[in-house]
Structure formats: C-alpha cells, structure tokens
Design a protein that fits this description.
The chain has helices at about 15-45, 55-80, 90, 95-110, 115-120, 140-150, 155, 215-220, 225-245, 290-300, 300-305, 315-320, 370; strands at about 135, 160-165, 165-175, 195-200, 205-210, 210-215, 260-265, 270-275, 310, 330, 340-345, 345-350, 360-365, 375-380, 380-385, 395-405, 410-415. It is α+β, with helices and mostly antiparallel strands. It has an 8-stranded mixed β-sheet. Strands 1, 2, 5, 6, 14, 15 and 16 form a 7-stranded mixed β-sheet that branches. Helix 1 (about 15-45) packs antiparallel against helix 2, helix 4 (about 95-110) packs antiparallel against helix 5 (about 115-120) and helix 6 packs across helix 9.
Length: about 425
C-alpha cells in the first residue's frame, strides 16, 4: 500500500509567481512553434503536395507538448491558490466551530469520539452517527468544495445548489404565462397558466478512503485539514467529472450526454439538440468552422452570452489547426497564466470525459451550463475512522452526497460528427 502524502505546517512547497510565469512563457512559445509548423503544413496542402511526414510528426510532438505544459501550468496555479487551514485561520471561526474542530482533530488523531458526539448532538445533527461517520468542520468542507470547483471542469461552469435532503425537486416553467398588448380601455383576457415540469435530482454517495499511519497522525505538526482535502479532491473530482458528462443516473448523477439528442431543427423539451458537421467522424474538409458557428447561433442570445465549449484535449488538438476565412486561427490560448483557451471568443472547459472524434460522436458541447446543468450537493462531508481493516494503516472513509442533471434543455447544444 502506498504511503499517503501528508503535508506539514512548516513545509513550503507552494510555487512562486515566477514558476507560473515561466510555465506560461513555455506554453506560449510552444503555441507559436505550433502555428508556424501548421502554416507549413497548410502551404504544402495548398500547393497540392502531400504533407511531409516530418512536418506531421513535428506537429504531433508540439501538440503533445502544449497539452503537457498547460497541465503543468494548471497544477502550479492550483497549488499557488491553496490556503493554509490551520494556525491563525482557527482564530477567525466561531467558538462553536472552533470547539467542533478541536473535537474532530481528537477523533482523527486518536479515535476519541466523546467530545465529537456531544458537539453533534448539540447541533442536532441527523446526517452523521458512529456508524456513518462524523461531519468534518465547516471550514474543511468549504475547502473541499472549493478545490473540487477548481479542478472539476463541469462543476466550475455549472449551476450548484446545496440542499439538506437526499432529493431536490425543482419546478421548471417550459412555457411562460401568456402576455400581449392591449389598449387603455380594452378588456384584459385571462392569461393562460404556464406549463410546469418537475425535475428531480437525487443525491448519490461518493466516497474516498485515504490511509495514514498512526505515527504520522501522532505528529502534532501534521495538518489534518490540509491532508484530508488534498487526499480526496482528485478522487472526488475525477468521479464527479465522469458522472456529470456521461453518468447514467444509477447510483450516480446523470450526465448531459446521457439524455436523448436530436437534430436541432426537431428539438423538443426533454432532448438536447445537435448540429451535424456534415462529415462522418470529422470536420468538413472545405469549411471546418461552419458547424461551430451554427452551434453557437443555435442558442438563443440569452444563453449565448455565457456560453462555454466543452471538449477533451484531443478534440482541441484538431481545432488548433483550423483557420477562419481571413487566415486567423480560431483557437487561442489564455492571454495570462490561468486564463482559459477560447474558441471563436468563447472559453473552453477541457473535460477528458468527453468522447474523442469518431463517426456520429457528440464530441463537443456548447451552452450556458450555469443554467443548463445543475449540480446538487448535500450539506456535510463525513469521515469514518477505521483502524482495523488495513493494519497498521488507519483508513478514513470519507463520503459526500452529490447529484446532477440537465435542468434547462434549451441551454446546451451538441456538435455531432456525422452526416445528419
């Protein structure tokens, strides 16, 4: 079993701003080299000469380098934004929160449950018990949620609602109330009732089980809050990301790709419309950008103003090669460290759970996800200490409940790599 990575309060591995700037400079140099190589490739095609194998291999290497450098830059930025949850931060919480934190630390380090039971009984907590685990302190829960938003691309752009029950029900108006113009003395006809649909979003249990040794937990310098947040963030984010994109709704959130997709001209409520590229498994060879323009304008203006593209890095690699009619690249990197790349001036959320380009694949989504997709978080992250199952390691069974699904079927469109 791997030994866990545990940070100490005195450790300083936060990257400097210079590290981030250098990583951004490397990324931009690679992108400029990519454009020069792609210009050579396009020139060879225009002169009706087959593309040189060396040029293709060089482009592939630079494309891979761009992805790797962007990933490194994102990791440096994430580390640089991490706050310290111990020390002076404790003084800023309420007396009750501070009491909860001390009791929780005693439970995590030594398994002492006495004070924690009293605290949660005092708070009338119904979401935890000795068998199901104990609630983490509020500031730790907030930190876990913040980190998930930073590394989970769909969570970052979607609507998020916190609830205290296992099921969130939301009435949604499919058609608004009837309205119209009338004269000053005209009879006002009675307006018709709006058509409402009830959407239900059940929350499902997501868990992680980091492990530590008793020796490390006995060390007073170990930052328990920081460790728990860092151990579960990647696991939770990966599982959430998969479910928000392609989950089937069985013991997990329902992803937007799981809903029925129809040609946008035949769109009805409950389905998600798509625009076809006109070519099976590829962009159109003559006008590759046309389908993307059509996808953008398939959305109404109210949704379009907050539009985001969602695709994986392989799809982005293909789009980087495309120019518009004026010879300008339609894909642009962020103009500063941490900035999102854009496609036709709309930001891209990179999700590796989106499918690769293939025949009839829905490899690109575009829309206002803050209105189109809803993530439901049940309040409370629980931890159950288990010193018996994997001796000499101590396991920490950490759970949170989360659900998700499409709430506005007009707000999201797909690009389908097919004929129709």
């Amino acid at each position: 079993m791997k030994h866990p990575k545990i940070e100490h309060k005195a450790a300083s591995n936060t990257p400097s701003s210079l590290d981030v700037v250098e990583a951004f400079d490397d990324f931009m140099h690679s992108f400029e080299a990519f454009k020069e190589t792609n210009d050579d490739r396009l020139a060879q095609l225009e002169s009706q000469i087959s593309v040189d194998v060396v040029t293709e291999e060089k482009m592939a290497r630079i494309n891979t380098s761009i992805d790797q450098q962007k990933q490194r830059m994102d990791e440096l930025l994430l580390k640089a934004r991490r706050p310290v949850l111990s020390g002076s931060a404790i003084a800023n919480v309420s007396a009750f929160a501070g009491e909860h934190k001390q009791a929780w630390n005693a439970y995590m380090r030594a398994g002492d449950t006495g004070n924690l039971r009293q605290i949660e009984a005092k708070a009338l907590s119904v979401s935890s018990d000795p068998d199901g685990g104990y609630l983490v302190p509020e500031q730790t829960e907030v930190e876990i949620g913040r980190r998930l938003a930073e590394i989970s691309p769909i969570r970052e752009i979607s609507g998020v609602r916190q609830v205290s029950s296992t099921l969130y029900k939301k009435p949604f108006s499919i058609t608004g109330a009837a309205t119209g113009w009338v004269g000053e003395t005209d009879v006002r006809p009675q307006t018709s009732s709006p058509t409402l649909a009830e959407l239900q979003f059940p929350t499902m249990e997501l868990y992680a089980m980091p492990a530590a040794t008793s020796t490390l937990l006995d060390d007073s310098a170990v930052n328990i809050d920081q460790w728990i947040a860092e151990e579960v963030q990647t696991v939770f984010a990966e599982q959430e990301g998969q479910a928000f994109v392609a989950g089937d709704g069985v013991n997990k959130p329902r992803g937007f790709l799981d809903y029925t997709s129809v040609a946008d001209g035949s769109w009805t409520w409950g389905n998600i419309g798509y625009i076809a590229t006109g070519t099976s498994g590829a962009f159109d060879a003559t006008a590759p950008g046309d389908a993307m323009v059509d996808t953008i304008y398939a959305l109404r203006a109210g949704y379009r103003s907050n539009g985001h593209w969602v695709m994986n890095r392989r799809t982005q690699a293909e789009i980087r090669k495309i120019k518009d009619a004026d010879g300008n690249y339609i894909w642009h990197p962020g103009n500063q460290p941490g900035g999102k790349p854009t496609l036709m001036n709309f930001p891209i959320a990179e999700s590796e759970d989106m499918p690769n380009i293939a025949a009839d694949s829905l490899s690109i989504a575009f829309g206002d996800f803050s209105r189109g997709y809803l993530i439901v978080d049940r309040l409370g992250v629980r931890v159950l200490r288990d010193p018996f199952t994997a001796k000499p390691y101590i396991l920490f069974y950490t759970t949170k409940r989360v659900g998700g699904g499409v709430q506005d079927f007009e707000a999201i469109k797909f690009m389908k790599f097919g004929l129709t």
